[in-house]
Amino acid sequence: MELLDPAKQKRVFPDEMYEKLNGFVDDLDIDPADPRKKGNLIQVLRKGQQIFGYLPRELQEYVAVRLGIHHAEVSGVVSFYNFFTTTPKGEFTISVCMGTACYVNGADKILSQFERILGIKSGEVTEDRKFSIDSLRCVGACSLAPVVTINDKVYGRVAPQDVEKIIEDCLVQEEA
Amino acid sequence: MEKIKTYQELTETHDKVKSLLDPRILLDRYQGKKREILVCGDTGCQASDSQKIVTRLNELILANNLEDTVSAKITGCFGFCEKGPIVKVFPDDVFYTQVTPEDADAIVENHIINNRVIQRLLFVHPETNQRIVPEKEIPFYQKQKRVALRNCGLIDPDNIYEYIANDGYMALGKVLNDMQSQDVINEIKAAGLRGRGGGGFPTGLKWEGALKNESDEKFIICNADEGDPGAFMDRSIMEGDPHSVLEAMTIAGYAIQSNKGYIYIRAEYPSCIARLKKAITQGEEIGFLGDNILGSGFDFTIELKYGAGAFICGEETALIHSIEGRRGEPTTKPPFPSDSGLWGKPTCVNNVETYANVCPIINKGADWYAGIGTETSKGTKVFALAGQINNTGLVEVPMGITLQEIVYDIGGGIQDNRRFKAVQTGGPSGGCITRANLETPIDYDSLAAIGSMMGSGGMIVLSEKDCIVNIAKFYLEFTVEESCGKCTPCRVGNKRLLEILEKITQGRGTMEDIETLKTLSEIIKDTSLCGLGQTTPNPVLSTLKYFEDEYITHVRDRKCPAGVCQKLITYEIVAEKCKGCTACSRLCPVGCISGAVKEAHVIDQELCIKCGVCFDKCKFTAIIRN
C-alpha cells in the first residue's frame, strides 16, 4: 500500500501528543518491510490510548499510516479488545468489578447505584466529562468484594449506601 | 550487580547468599541478631494500604536508630487475604492480621523495642477464641502445601539474591550443565505435571512435541492472561515470585530448543507488569537471560506482550494471534501450536502456575513431585477461594484433598453460618459441586466426572443466599460479552441461552424453556470451534443437573427461593413489628422508606431498587421479603 507521510495527516489533537506517540514508535525501530511488524500494533495502540485518552477514528488512521498497515486492520483490533475505547473517559473513571466474587456479593447493585446517581449508564461519560462508569472483570482483590476502582484507587467492601459518599470524595479531591 | 558467568559461579553465589533467608526459615533455631518485618504487597493488601505500613515502619526504624537490627520489606501474597494486610515478624514467627498503617508504631515500639507481642493483632481461633502467634497453628494453613507459591510471602520479589537464596536459578544451572533437552522433558513427564491453566494437558508431552519439530525458530509463551473472574493465583505468583516464571521459561526454552520467550500478560495487572519488567532487567544484568547463559552456549531472551482485555485470548491459538497484532480469534486445532504456532513456528504455551512448578521438579526430582497428589493428577493446585466463605484467599493444596477440607477446614466454613449450597469451579467453563460431592477427592478427572472442571482454580463458594439461576445467568452474560463471534454456535447460541435465563429470572419462563436450555447447550458444546464455546454451556448444564428444582420454582411459582432475582421479590415492613428506629430509612440508598421516629415505616414500592440493605439491617425482623 501507499505510505502517506504521517506529517501530512490530519491532526485533531495538540502536536505534542503526536510527538510523544511518534517518539514511542521510533524507539520500537520497526522495519517497514518486516512481515511481523504488525506484532507491535497492540502496544502502539495502548500507548496511544494512554496519551490521548481514547482512540477516535482520526487517531486509528494516524496509527495505521505510521505503521504502514490498513486502517481496517487497526479498527478491527480496536473494536475487538475491551481495553480499547473509541469514546473519551471521564476525569474519574469508575470501574465496578463484575468478577464472580464481587457479583455474588452484590456488585450489580453497586453498579446500578452509580448509574442512578450519576444519571449515566455503564460505558458512558457524564456531560461535564467528570465521571465515566465501566464494569471490569476481576482485579483479583476478591477478599475485598465487592470492589470498585476509581482511577487507581481501590475501594473494597462497598455497600450501596456508600456510593454517594464515594462520589462526593471524588469531588472533594478535585477541589483540593 | 555482578555477572554470573558459569554454573560454578552460581553455586558460589548461592552459598554466599543462602543466609539471607535464615531468620525467615530457621525461626527459633536462628542464632543471629537480625530481625525482619515482612508486609504483604499483593494487590489485595495494597488496596488496604500495606505500602503505607512499610513506609511507616521504615520511618520508625530510622527514627529509633534500629536499622542495624531490623528491616521492613514488602513480600508476595501470604494467601490469607481475608485477614489482610498481613505482617509477619521474623525470626519470632509472629503473624499479625488486619494491620493498619497506625499499627506500625505499636509494632516497632512494643514488639521490636520492648519484645512484647501485640495481642490485639493476632489471629483469633474461631472455635477456641484463643489468640494464635505462629502461622503454622492457624487452621487456614494446616492442610496447605506450598510448591508453586513457595516464595510468596517468603522473599522480597524485587531482590534476585533472595530468590537465589531459596535455590533460585539452581534448576536452570543444573539443566544447562548436566542435562540434555530430552532429559528435561523426561523429568517433567515422569513428574506427571499437567497444565494448570485448566486443560490439564501433560506438560512434558507438549514440550516433547515442540522439541521434535525441527525449525530455525521456536517460541516459548507464558500465558499470563488470567481471565477467569475470581481467580488470581497467576497474578500472585508473578507479583510475589517473578523470577520463578522467568527461570522456568528459560528451562522450557532449553527443553524445546527455543531462544525466545514471550509473556502474554493482561493489561489489568499493572503491578505484575512492573515486577516482571524489573525481574527481566535483573535477569539480563546478572546473565540468566541473554547470550551464552552460564557459559552453556544457550541463548534465551524474554519479552512482555500485553493483552488488551479479551477473555478468549487465554485460548492458546487466540493468544498467539493477539501477539501477532491481530484480533484474538481462535483457529481450529490441529495444527497444534507445537507444530505451527507463533508466526507459523513451533510454539509452547504454558500457564504461569505450570511454570511455577517446573523448578522444584528439577531441583527435588520427579519422584518427589509424583509422590504428591493422586494417581492421575500429581503435585499441588492453587485455588482462589472466594464468595460466601469465611476465609477468602489463596490456598495451595495437594491434589486429592476433598472439597470438604477446603471449604470447612481451610476456608473456615460459610459466612454467618449459612447453609452450604455449592462450589463453582472452573469459572465460565466449569460447573457446580454440591453437598453430595463434598467428599470427592479433587483432581482433574474426578471434577470432570461430576460435571465440573479444574479450570484455572477459581473456587466460588455459594450459600443458600445465592440464586443458582442467577449464577448461571451471570456466567452467560460473561460469555456473551467475551465470545469472539467467529463461530455461530457460540456467538448466537449463548446469546439465546442468556435470553432464556433472563426470562426465567424475570418470572416469564415456561417449562419448555428449561428443555430448550438443555438441548441448545448440548448443541453449542458439540458444534463450537474452540475450547471457549465447547465449555460455556457447562454452568447451565451443571446447575440444571443439580438444581433443576430451583429453575422450576422460578418458572412455576414465579418465586426466587434465595431472594435474589429482583423481579420476583418485594420488601415490605410489618407495621406491628416496626419500632420506628429509622435504621432502614437512614441507610436506604434511594430514600424510599418513610415514617416518623418511633412510628411504623413504609417502603415505597415504586422507588425500591430491592437492594436488600434494609432487610439485612433491621434488628427486629420487621422487614420481610416475599
Automatic annotation (TrEMBL), chain A:
UniProt keyword Iron, yes or no: yes
Highest taxon, organism lineage: Bacteria
Metal-binding is among the record's keywords: yes
Signal peptide interval: none
Pfam families registered for this protein in UniProt: 2Fe-2S_thioredx
PANTHER family xrefs: NADH-QUINONE OXIDOREDUCTASE, E SUBUNIT, POTENTIAL NAD-REDUCING HYDROGENASE SUBUNIT
Reported cofactor(s): [2Fe-2S] cluster
The family this protein is said to belong to: Belongs to the complex I 24 kDa subunit family.
InterPro entries: NADP_DH_HndA-like, NuoE-like, NuoE_dom, NuoE_N, Thioredoxin-like_sf
Naturally occurring in which organism (per UniProt): Desulforhopalus singaporensis
Any one Gene Ontology molecular-function term assigned to this protein's record: 2 iron, 2 sulfur cluster binding
Annotated keywords: 2Fe-2S, Iron, Iron-sulfur, Metal-binding
Top-level taxonomy: Bacteria, Pseudomonadati, Thermodesulfobacteriota, Desulfobulbia, Desulfobulbales
Residues reported to bind [2Fe-2S] cluster: 97, 102, 138, 142
Cofactor note: Binds 1 [2Fe-2S] cluster.
Full protein name: NADH-quinone oxidoreductase subunit E
UniProtKB/TrEMBL annotation, chain B:
SMART domains (alphabetical): NADH_4Fe-4S
Listed Pfam families: 2Fe-2S_thioredx, Complex1_51K, Fer4, NADH_4Fe-4S
Native species: Desulforhopalus singaporensis
InterPro entries, sorted: 4Fe4S_Fe-S-bd, 4Fe4S_Fe_S_CS, NADH-UbQ_OxRdtase_51kDa_CS, Nuo51_FMN-bd, Nuo51_FMN-bd_sf, Nuop51_4Fe4S-bd, Nuop51_4Fe4S-bd_sf, Thioredoxin-like_sf
UniProt name for this protein: NAD(P)-dependent iron-only hydrogenase diaphorase component flavoprotein
Keywords carried by this UniProt record: 4Fe-4S, Iron, Iron-sulfur, Metal-binding
Molecular function per GO: 4 iron, 4 sulfur cluster binding; FMN binding; metal ion binding; NADH dehydrogenase (ubiquinone) activity
Domain 4Fe-4S ferredoxin-type: 569-598, 599-626
Family label: Belongs to the complex I 51 kDa subunit family.
The keyword Metal-binding is assigned to this record: yes
Signal peptide: none
